[in-house]
Amino acid sequence: MNVRELWQKPEARFLILFLTILGVSFTVVALRQVNDAFVTPYTAVIARMSGSVLRIFGEKATVTGCVVSSPRFAVTIYNGCNGLITSLIFISGVLAFPAKISAKLIGVIGGLLTIQLINLVRIVSLFYIGIFLPQHFNDAHIFVWQSLVIIAGISLWIVWAHKFALPQESS
């Protein structure tokens, strides 16, 4: 099978596009200039949002850069904990999928907002796990929440594909 025949298969085309977009996006965000100009400020915004939510809940939280702290606990939000990786995976899937531009726009905007909302819940819950169940913080952070955020991103993509991207059968 040659490249042209492979490209004619929708599933192969999706996979090639998905992996290409994903590879390019991961490479771009790994560049020091992009990290310094975009990823770190983006992560600081996530930290400020997390601090705001914690203050709404009565926590005396302060934010310095990417560190959210209170007299009871502190957490540093690193790249990988900011929802960006899951967002890039999701966006790559949306952009690679054969769909109308309007459906892709709905997917990208809706997916990014939803992933960040889930990630905000993740950070706030991890903060409280650090306060009340510190012995479970690492397991909750690494095994539970990382898995849940990735599963949420994949689930969002599946919902988007079925609801907005795939042609709907008329009754």
UniProtKB/TrEMBL annotation:
<keyword id="KW-1133">Transmembrane helix</keyword>
<dbReference type="GO" id="GO:0006508">
    <property type="term" value="P:proteolysis"/>
</dbReference>
<dbReference type="InterPro" id="IPR019127">
    <property type="entry name" value="Exosortase"/>
</dbReference>
<feature type="transmembrane region" description="Helical">
    <location>
        <begin position="77"/>
        <end position="98"/>
    </location>
</feature>
<feature type="transmembrane region" description="Helical">
    <location>
        <begin position="12"/>
        <end position="31"/>
    </location>
</feature>
<dbReference type="InterPro" id="IPR026392">
    <property type="entry name" value="Exo/Archaeosortase_dom"/>
</dbReference>
<keyword id="KW-0645">Protease</keyword>
<keyword id="KW-0472">Membrane</keyword>
<dbReference type="GO" id="GO:0005886">
    <property type="term" value="C:plasma membrane"/>
</dbReference>
<keyword id="KW-0812">Transmembrane</keyword>
<dbReference type="Pfam" id="PF09721">
    <property type="entry name" value="Exosortase_EpsH"/>
</dbReference>
<protein>
    <submittedName>
        <fullName>Exosortase H</fullName>
        <ecNumber>3.4.22.-</ecNumber>
    </submittedName>
</protein>
<dbReference type="GO" id="GO:0008233">
    <property type="term" value="F:peptidase activity"/>
</dbReference>
<keyword id="KW-0378">Hydrolase</keyword>
<feature type="transmembrane region" description="Helical">
    <location>
        <begin position="105"/>
        <end position="131"/>
    </location>
</feature>
<feature type="transmembrane region" description="Helical">
    <location>
        <begin position="143"/>
        <end position="161"/>
    </location>
</feature>
<keyword id="KW-1003">Cell membrane</keyword>
<dbReference type="InterPro" id="IPR026441">
    <property type="entry name" value="Exosort_XrtH"/>
</dbReference>
